[in-house]
Amino acid sequence: MVMAFCHKERLTCLMNIERQWANSLRRIVAFVCFVLFTFSSVVYSANINALKAVFMFNIVNFIEWPEESFATSDSPIQFCVLSNLRVLKNLRSVINNETIKGRTLEAIAVNSDKDMENCHIIFLGASSEQQEPDTLEFLAKENILTVGESPDFLPQGGMIYLKHSRKRIQIEISLDSVKNSDLEVSSKLLRLAIIK
Description:
- By secondary structure, the protein is α/β, with parallel strands linked by helices.
- It has a single domain (about 50-195), classed as Rossmann fold, CATH 3.40.50.
- It is about 45% helix and about 20% strand.
- The protein has five helices and ten strands; from the N terminus they run αββαβββαβββαβαβ.
- Helix 3 (about 135-140) links the parallel strand 5 and strand 6 (about 145-150).
- The longest helix is centred in the first third of the chain and has 58 residues, at about 1-60.
- The radius of gyration is 27 Å and the shape is elongated.
C-alpha cells in the first residue's frame, strides 16, 4: 500500500514538473516571438523612413522651381519635414554634403504655416494637421512642393504621395495640384509615377 502511494505521488510529481516545464516553454516561446515581432517592426519602420528620405532627395532632381523661389543664385534648397522626425533624421543623413543643381541642401523641422514660408519641398507626416486643402493650396501657390504619406493626401490637394506597402514605395502625383503652382515636373518623374 505504501509503495503504491509513493508510486502515485511520484507520478503526480512528474506530471506537475512536466506541466511547469511546458508552461515555461510556452512563456519563453511567446517572449521570443514578441521580441522578434517588435524588432522586425522597428527595422521595417526604419527602412521605410529611410526610403522616404531617399525618395525626397531624388525627387528634387526632377523638379524645377521658378528663380524667385530662391533669395539668391546660391541659396540652398530647403527641405522641410512636419510630423515625422524619423524621416527628418534620415533625410539629414542622406543630404549631408550633397548639392543639387549647384545648390546646397538643408533639412529642418517645421511646426506651423509660418515656418513653411522658406521651404522648397515639404514632407507632411501622416499625423500632420496641415494637410487641410486650404494649407495645401497656399503651399502650391508659394511654389512649395508638397509630399505626403497619408492615403488622403492627394485628394486634399497634395502634390506627391509616397505610397508604401511591403517595403516598397510607389510615387503618385496629382497633376492638378502641381498645375496650381509654377513648379515644373520632369517627364522622367511622371513616367515613374502613377498620375492621379
